[in-house]
Amino acid sequence: MMLFKKGRLLAFLCSQVIVVALFVHMSGHRHLFQREESRRPVHVLVLSSWRSGSSFVGQLFGQHPDVFYLMEPAWHVWMTFTSSTAWKLHMAVRDLLRSVFLCDMSVFDAYMNPGPRKQSSLFQWEQSRALCSSPICDFFPADQISSPKHCKPLCSQLPFDMVEKACRSHSHVVLKEVRFLSLQALYPLLTDPSLNLHIVHLVRDPRAVFRSREHTTAELMIDSHIVLGQNLKMIKEEDQPYYAMKIICKSHVDIVKAIQTLPEVLQRRYLLLRYEDLVRAPLAQTSRLYKFVGLDFLPHLQTWVHNVTRGKGMGQHAFHTNARDALNVSQAWRWSLPYTKVSQLQDDCGEAMDFLGYLQVRSQQEQGNLSLNLLSSSRILGQVFQEG
């Protein structure tokens, strides 16, 4: 009897040893998985529309030494199919972005001339610090702010395969894109297990966007025609800018509403940012962006952000991100856009303005009164996406 009890005790102790061993084994695997998960590249899509400050937000990411950044890679798709429509091109753009996020640059074969290519074949490649600095282009240290003006003549002749090498050498891949008018096409990217996608959705006061688009009509002509699509020939030329804005405004509302229908785990990968909030508090909002995607706000970047938002210029060029008075730029429409245009635009974009917290003006006097704050804490910003 005693031997039987001792045998049962021994069996019990052995079983406990096995359980502990299994726990230690599984725990090791779990920690290994967590370490591997933490080493996964982070993919960030800066989603916006034309003339909304997206080039600046792209540079906030692109100047970080841990980031590989490309500006509007879908430009190549749209410029290949200039007679198409935005909705018909959504899938092609989505597939291109997925390949670029995974550092597979062969996707550009469909949109570039055959034969040997340079990295300068990419649209606005010089806006990418990663393509202008070591180890890709040794003229610029990787931990310093790069200058597109200086990069362009020095690094343009590097072979195209260096783009893929640069992409794979960074922990974060950030793409800035303005050629999505719907979130539906992006659903597969959000749920793709090979991606770790975060979306930064940048919006701007439609009145400021309209004013800026008026100054860049020629640069945006092809894009505007693709946005208008089959309606282009049916709309009077003088009405086309308003119709394009109506489509753009609706797209922002649709994107936010679509995000709200997603599971909470996917909603946490989305951040809504108003350009006006960014220029009013550039350091705080940049810190918020970096925290969202897991980047450190390095001291030299803090200095750069402070300086680049407190210049004297008004930023006239469509793609340049130079020092300017960012707050002044954000309000330029209030003294330069006729009230008749403002009134019509408010009619066309009223829902989006209310939804995103942009207050309407009811007279020329209100428009010109700069002491009148036209930003509100919208229901969307207050309830869902505003960071405390």
TrEMBL record:
Main location per the UniProt record: Golgi
Span of domain Sulfotransferase: 43-354
Keyword set includes Transferase: yes
The EC number(s) this enzyme carries: 2.8.2.-
UniProt keyword Transport, yes or no: no
Bilayer disposition of the protein: Single-pass type II membrane protein
Subcellular location: Golgi apparatus membrane
GO cellular component terms given for this protein: Golgi membrane; trans-Golgi network
PANTHER family xrefs: CARBOHYDRATE SULFOTRANSFERASE, CARBOHYDRATE SULFOTRANSFERASE 4
Record family assignment: Belongs to the sulfotransferase 1 family. Gal/GlcNAc/GalNAc subfamily.
Protein name: Sulfotransferase
Protein source organism: Rattus norvegicus
Name of the gene: Chst4
